[in-house]
Amino acid sequence: MTGSQKRSTAGETPVGVVGTGGMGRMHARILHHKVAGARVAAVSDVDAERAEEVAEECGSAVVFSDAIEMIQDKAVEAVVIASPDPTHARLTLECLQIGKPVLCEKPLATSPQEALGVVEAEVERDEKLVQVGFMRRYDPQHVDVKTTVSSGDIGEPVLFKGWHRNAASPPVADSEWVVINSAIHDLDSARWMLDGEIEEVFVRGLDTTGSPAEGEFDLQLIQLSVSGGRLGVIEVYVDAGYGYEVGVEVVGTRGTAYTAPPTGAVVRLARNYSQNVEADWLERFEIAYTVQLQRWIESQNNGRLNGPDAWDGYAALVVAEACIASIKSGNPEPVSQPEKPKLYGKETSEVVR
Ligand code: ISE
Question: Does 292 sit in the ligand 1 pocket, CB within 6 Å?
Answer without folding.
Answer: no
